[in-house]
Amino acid sequence: MRPPNLIISEGLVDSFRAYKLNAYIFDSRQQMSKAAAASVAAEMRRLIAEQGRAVGAFASEPSHNEFLDELVKAEEIEWTRVIGFHLDELLGANEDAPQSHRRFLIDRLVKRVPMAEFHGLRGEAANPEAVCANYVALLKSRPPDFVTLDVGETGRLASINPRVCDFNDPAMARVVEIDEAPRHAISLTIPAIMVCPKLFLIVPDATKQDAVLRMIEGEITPACPASILRTHENAHLFLDRDSAAKLAR
Fold it and tell me: Which class does domain 20-240 fall in?
């Protein structure tokens, strides 16, 4: 049975469960993005109706461009009751830097809707440990109701790659080593993501085939951080034909 407040639009070609993870395969990236945006929008409307606000943490990934375009066009979202966080930021990057994860979301989401609050990780701050502590305090004062996620080619979630992944990390945010310059980022950890009540994974493109295969059919292991999502009670994975091509369906 499809969970409530999950909207599947045209183009659905398959759906299945991988342990607890709900997965949906769409004919195209655009159809996948529309379905994901409709489902996130429905969840936001439900949260606002039931508790007066919706708190979300959003991924900052080019693979989410179409999803964000559809989300800002969604009808009847009271954005003035929405609080936004994001998942990670490059160490040393201010929000005007072209590579800034904050800038990505500010340009594609925050500037386009009247969001009540958006809290960005200050990658340029002189004391990144203090940034982590302050962000954790904010998260605890406004716990996210949902998270939108991408899965990297290594199985990465946010900036948590296999080299630094700890499913039992005691921290909610930390500085981690990453593969690309500037070599470090501030990131929410796996436990900080997993504690959120509802997760939406939006993972298109052929470049993600191997990561999707390991996430769905491989061992649940820090060697593929995204594999832990199979144990979440309310996680939803949106794929297109390209990203799902290696699955045994």
Answer: alpha beta
Q: What are 224's two structure tokens? A: 């593929």
* Contact call for residues 184 and 88 (beta carbons, < 8 A): no
Q: CA 249 to CA 244: how far, in whole Å?
A: 9
What are the counts of helices (DSSP H) followed by strands (DSSP E) for the chain? 6, 11
Q: DSSP string of 50-81?
A: HHS-EEEEE---GGGHHHHHHHHH-TT--GGG
Q: What is the pTM of this model?
A: 0.96
CA gap 46, 36 in Å, rounded? 15
Q: Is 248 helix (H, G, I), strand (E, B) or coil?
A: coil
Q: Is residue 84 classed as helix, strand or coil in its secondary structure? A: strand
Close Cβ partners of 212 (under 8 Å, ≥ 6 residues apart): 151, 203, 239, 243, 244, 246, 247
- Residue given tokens 């936001």 in the structure block: 44
Question: In whole angstroms, how large is the CA radius of gyration of the chain?
Answer: 17
In a structure prediction context, what are the per-residue pLDDT tens digits for the chain, which is 249 residues long? 454 456 666 899 999 999 999 999 999 999 999 999 999 999 999 999 999 999 999 999 999 999 999 999 999 999 999 999 999 999 999 999 999 999 999 999 999 999 999 999 999 999 999 999 999 999 999 999 999 999 999 999 999 999 999 999 999 999 999 988 889 999 999 999 999 999 999 999 999 999 999 999 999 999 999 999 999 999 999 999 999 999 986
Residue whose entry in the numeric block shows the structure tokens 């649940």: 220
Residue 10, classified by CB atoms within 10 Å of its CB into exposed (0-12), middle (13-18) or buried (19+), is exposed
Under a CB-based contact definition with an 8 Å cutoff, are residues 79 and 113 in contact?
Answer: yes
